[in-house]
Amino acid sequence: MRSMGAGLCRCVGACAPNWEPRVPVFFITLIDEGQIVYPTDANTEGFRRSTPHFPDIHRTYRRALRGFDYIGMLDPALYVSTQKVECVSRFILWHAHALVWNTSAAALDQWASEARWSMRAYLPYASGIDWRPIRPPDLRQLIWYTGKTPRQQYQLWRREKGSLQQYARPINGVNAVRLYATMRNLTLPELTFAGGAGRQIIRRTLRRASAW
C-alpha cells in the first residue's frame, strides 16, 4: 500500500511535508447488487440472482471506470444474519473504491449520470455510484481507506413497509475468520484494478510485492 500510495502521489504532485496534490483528485465508490457472492455451501437454486465469478466482478468495476486515470481496489462487505432477507445466513457484496485524477467534477458528474443505470446499489435508497472531490489534506487518509483491511460487518432489518435498513458494527472474531477463509486465495492482482496512468502504478506495486 505504501508503494501504491507513493506512485499516486508522484502522479498528482503530492510531496512532503504536506502531501497535498497539485491537481484535483476524486474518490469514487461503486456498488452493484449483481456482485453478491453467497457462501459455497448455500443452496442458491431458485435465487433471484446468480453468484458471479470473481473475474467477472473485477471486470464489471474495471469496465465502469474505462477512460479515466485511476487506481482502485475491490472491497468485501460481509452481511450476516441474512436468513430472512436472502435465505442464506450470510453473503458478501463486493464493491469498489477508486482514486481518480486528470478529470473534472463536470466530467465525473456526466459520467455518473450516464453510468448509474448499470450500477444498482443493494439498498434501494442508496446510489450505485458515489463520487466526491478529495480535500488536499485528506489524500493520504483516502489512500489508506482504499486499501484498508475490512473492519465492519453488516446486518439488515426489513421495515414494516418492506424496505431494508442497514446496520454496521465492528467485525467479530468468527466473521473475521469466515472473511479470511473467503479471501485467502485471492491475490493482489485480483483485488486491485487501474486505468490510464494508474496502470503503471499498479505494475510497479505488483513488482515490488512479488520481490518481498
Describe the structure concisely for a colleague.
By secondary structure, the protein is of the alpha+beta class. 35% of the residues lie in helices and 28% in strands.
Topology:
Layout: H1 2-12, E1 25-37, H2 54-64, E2 69-80, H3 83-86, E3 90-101, H4 105-115, E4 129-133, H5 139-146, E5 152-158, E6 164-170, H6 173-183, H7 188-191, E7 192-195, H8 198-211
Keywords:
single chain, 212 residues, 8 helices, 7 strands, 35% helix
Give your account of this protein's structure:
The chain is of the alpha+beta class. Helix content is 35%, strand content 28%. The protein contains 8 helices and 7 strands. The chain has helices spanning 2-12, 54-64, 83-86, 105-115, 139-146, 173-183, 188-191, 198-211; strands at residues 25-37, 69-80, 90-101, 129-133, 152-158, 164-170, 192-195. Strands 1, 2, 3, 4, 5, 6 and 7 form a 7-stranded mixed beta sheet that branches. Helix 1 (2-12) runs antiparallel to helix 8.
**Which H/E pattern describes the elements?**
HEHEHEHEHEEHHEH
Mean of pLDDT: 90
Number of strands: 7
Please report which band the strand proportion falls in: under 5%, 5-15%, 15-25%, 25-35%, 35-45% or over 45%.
25-35%
